[in-house]
Design a protein that fits this description.
mainly beta, 58% strand, 11 strands, 120 residues
Length: 120
């Protein structure tokens, strides 16, 4: 199992920056990807950034160039740096881990989320 705890959300003005943190614990060697998702009111949860076990990162076009995902393996932390924020970035941000099991299947683990609100 893997436990994920987000922090760093809050209220920020449009154009500002914010860094979210995710503390990861548990069976860390089994993690395939660490990701950040977000869900705005009335909308589906969407991927914001992904970092693979080997270090490769992926971003959807909607946020590419404005967000950076990183990982500190020594501290078991995953970060999401967000710049040039707009009100459209307002959402609950979730830390996610895709974890492989002994049987070769994959399980999803989620944190409880952290609220990000961008004001005009």
């Amino acid at each position: 199992q893997v436990q994920l705890v987000e922090s760093g959300g809050g209220l920020v003005q449009a154009g500002g920056s914010l860094r979210l943190s995710c503390a990861v614990s548990g069976n860390i060697p089994a993690i395939v990807t660490n990701d950040w998702y977000r869900q705005a009111p009335g909308k589906q949860r969407e991927l914001v950034a992904k970092i693979w076990r080997g270090g490769r990162v992926d971003y959807p076009d909607s946020v590419k160039g404005r967000v950076t995902i990183s990982r500190d393996n020594a501290k078991n932390m995953v970060y999401l740096q967000m710049n040039s924020l707009t009100p459209e970035d307002t959402a609950i941000y979730y830390c996610h881990a895709l974890v492989t099991t002994t049987w070769g299947t994959n399980n999803d683990y989620w944190g409880r989320g952290t609220q990000v609100t961008v004001s005009t």
